[in-house]
Amino acid sequence: MFSKLRSLIFKIDPETAHNLAIKSLKFNFINNVFDENKNDNMFATTLFGKKIENPIGIAAGFDKNAEVYNSLFRLGFGFVEVGTVTPLKQYGNSKPRVFRLVEDQALINRLGFNNLGAHNISSRISSNKPTGLLGVNIGPNKDTNDRLNDYLIGLKNFYKICDYITINISSPNTESLRDFHEQSRLHELLSLIDKEKKKLNSKIPIVIKISPDILDDEVNSICKILMNFDVKAIIISNTTDKNRENLINTSKHQKGGLSGKPLESKSNKLIYNFYSLLKGKIEIIGVGGVDSGKSALNKFLSGANYIQLYTGMVYQGPNIVVKIKKELKELLINRGVKNFRDIIGKQN
What we know:
The chain is α/β, with parallel strands linked by helices. Helix content is about 35%, strand content about 15%.
């Protein structure tokens, strides 16, 4: 059905189309998909000590306000990440702020953490129990006077009602946010998060979402800091504000973060760099260009333990998890693999 509707959907402004997708999921206008590979042992795994049916998650940015996470579980996602959530409600950047690059199978967005705020979203999650493993992605308000404290506010609002919290230091759409990749800034942030967790007597897993645009010599210092503070996972990666050279679509020069297929190779190389240094001590969630069994396979071969997607669903439709699992299963069988975990990091 999606393939028939796609040309019509793509005539609508991307942000409007996204809002319609959220409403469709919210009111169950999108039927549950048939999955012949549901509960297949080939995809079974655990995340933060909890069993999940498969390693395919939906990235933050799709369900910003935690409206449809249970509907996304019904579409087959093994885990769902909502947000990014800031302490206070904010509109984000001015419109238009989302652009489809159809020829490139990509999106550019400069949304700017538009969301309803921590109180509203935490109340929503508290009143609608997640049916699967749920993460919350947190960030600071644009006009805050204390970004460090904003992250602590996010932690305090969500640590009791989700399965993990992602610290977003990598959106290109909030000015200077990526400065937190710098060694002393990252150390300060994670030190405060660690102290707050101890105050709260919480063992909530902390995940860091990083930029794909970091330099090679930054990877080693970031790894050391993450291991020092017992960070449980790293998401590689957020959108890029680079990689425009080979794009075709006329919107390629729009300011914002680029996601989708043009990010795939860059993301995979960065995943392998981190995998080589972390040596399994921290889980890796791979993001960027995942839209098929082959692209998922390449993420795992590069060293990802799990994958997330968003742009892939824009172009492939709501049955994307079923599609990926079907294609991936065939690829794994051809390799004589019984569970996807057996190929993690085996790209050579």
